[in-house]
Design a protein that fits this description.
The chain is of the alpha/beta class and 315 residues long. The chain is globular, with a radius of gyration of 19 Å. Strand 10 (191-196), helix 8 and strand 11 form a beta-alpha-beta unit. It contains ten helices and 15 strands. The strands form three sheets. The chain has a nine-stranded mixed beta sheet with strand order 2-3-7-4-6-5-9-10-11, sandwiched between helices. The chain has a four-stranded parallel beta sheet with strand order 12-15-13-14. A two-stranded parallel sheet has the order 1-8. Bound molecules: threonylcarbamoyladenylate and magnesium ion. The site of magnesium ion (MG) has 3 residues, from loops.
């Protein structure tokens, strides 16, 4: 992609702070995936994010902050009391970390473009130390995943170079530890529901909420617009057959030309960590089509992995 950026690509924390304060967009690591960051208060930069990603304007952005107090300052005044107790419980257990909460907000405090016109906004306190340092110095940042819309997310510096060009600024934080996006919870008439499966699984919330939150069905996807879009797809076609395999270690594939391993069948976290890297590797190797092995367990983190792979396979 042609880029209008003239910075050296890898930048340090001080330069990242400067760029954000000057109203620019740059890539920033988090523990889940890299994000494309802009100041919540710079509408020009927010619009630039939609433009750079090719993101539909009806798909809202997650606001990343450093503390629960920051989040409370945006919540709709007459909802604060109702949400107070559970928000503290969820924050204590899961933040900083890979949880995103969709909350009713005072609309005047957050640009319409960030919310995509909704009366809610999504919030997350990330745990990556570099992201937290950055947030301390810049204040709230909007951050969608740092990939071109529809492509696999970026989990390392190289992936951003591939999507946005060699001179796009990146705060390099190494390889993302989780490799999959945060889990998104939305509050519906007093109950929390899962709007996007992520690295946290429904059962993780049982001890905090007293129940396992339901996964919102596709028909409710208007509640989480991002779920409507084709996503996570490499150029390589993921098919039901073929002699190159996208599969798992500890499984034997007979008479196949080559196997791309997504990770270990004994440990879904290894699959999560390498998922987007492996999808992107198919394109780097100019593989046109593979047999996608979807014979995986139906429990826990495997559900998230299946959802990502099925969406990646949509033509
Ligand atoms: O792990 C993550 O969440 C990463 C890192 C960078 O933090 N971010 C990320 O952002 O995955 P993005 O833009 O790729 O996905 C954000 C999702 C979209 O599906 C969007 O529709 C949903 O969050 N979302 C944002 N605001 C929302 C809202 N007010 N109501 C419902 N869904 C919302
Ligand atoms: Mg994304």
């Amino acid at each position: 992609m042609e880029s209008s950026y003239n910075y050296l690509m890898k930048i340090n924390l001080d330069r990242a702070v400067e760029l954000i304060k000057e109203g620019n967009v740059l890539a920033v690591p988090t523990e889940t995936v890299y994000g494309l960051a802009a100041s919540l208060y710079c509408e020009k930069a927010v619009k630039e994010i939609f433009h750079i990603k090719g993101r539909p304007s009806n798909n809202p952005l997650i606001i990343h902050v450093n503390s629960l107090e920051d989040i409370f300052s945006f919540i709709k005044e007459n909802e604060k009391n109702r949400l107070h107790f559970e928000l503290h419980l969820l924050a204590k257990k899961f933040w900083p970390g890979p949880l995103t909460l969709v909350l009713p907000v005072e609309k005047t405090l957050i640009f319409e473009s960030v919310r995509a016109g909704l009366s809610t906004a999504a919030f997350r306190i990330p745990s990556h130390l570099l992201t937290r340092e950055l947030l301390k110095k810049t204040g709230p940042l909007v951050m969608p995943s740092a990939n071109r819309s529809g492509r696999p997310s970026a989990t390392e510096y190289r992936h951003i170079e591939n999507d946005f060009g060699k001179d796009f600024p990146v705060l390099d934080g190494g390889i993302c530890k989780c490799g999959l996006e945060s889990t998104i919870l939305i509050n519906q008439e007093g109950r929390w529901e899962i709007a996007r499966l992520g690295i946290l699984i429904p059962e993780d919330f049982e001890s905090t909420l007293g129940y396992v939150p339901k996964i919102l069905q596709k028909t409710d996807s208007i509640l989480c617009p991002g779920q409507l879009h084709k996503h996570y797809s490499p150029k390589c076609r993921l098919e039901k057959e073929g002699d190159i395999v996208l599969g798992y270690r500890n499984r034997i594939y007979l008479n196949k030309k080559k196997v791309y391993y997504l990770g270990d069948l004994e440990d879904p976290f290894t699959v999560a960590e390498s998922l987007y890297r492996t999808l992107r590797k198919l394109d780097e190797d100019s593989i046109e089509s593979v047999f996608l092995d979807l014979e995986i367990p139906e429990i826990g983190l495997w559900k998230t992995i299946r959802e990502r792979l099925e969406r990646a396979a949509i033509k």
